Amino acid sequence: MRKRVWALAAALLMLPLTGCGSLLNRDYSVTEPHSSSYYESEDRSVLRAESYQDLVNALLVLISGGAKEGTIWLYPDDSGLPAPQAAERACLEVQKETPLGAYAVEYLTYTVDETPRNYDAIQLTVGYRRTAAQVAGIVHITSTSALGDLLREAARNHAAELVVQVGYFDHQAEEVRTQVTQIQAEVEPESKEPWTVNFYPDSGNAGIIEVLLSGAGSAEGAEQNTKNTN
Question: Signal peptide location in the record (predicted)?
Fold first, then answer.
């Protein structure tokens, strides 16, 4: 008997809104209880998707669980989008447009088995640029107003980084950078190496904020966020 993915709603509720730059300008934080996504097998080895949105949601379920491989059975819908195109589009959207994908995923690869039947089987491989511990260590906050106290605590504990997932972010990158600079001046007045701030995705409505307290930001993260001054 197929089991609905009740865990999907809980997992995606932790993913805030993406900005207007999203490929489809969709909300990744809400999954309706009647979603048609559910597991195909008792051992939850295969996810079912009955639409493109289901496919995106299924990818996010795999990533939020740290899966390195996964299988999704994609059933045809009214859009008529072929499975290979749907898979390519969904992988790009998840990696580039969602907070968790932009922060944690290095690459997504897939193959599509289009053997004639009532679904196409998509086999996925996920490469991560963050460890499972880093993903598990993300702190969820409702707004950037909580960032100051969290940074002070992180500095007291000599933490190398602080990563937060924020529920509301409206073109506040410059405001966040200013706040981080002020907190560093308060807790490390003698420091000459500024803390590094990165945003994921790199857009006006980023969902994840990464602060590297050591000041030694990765070249990749710094390059991705150089232009984010909105």
Answer: 1-21
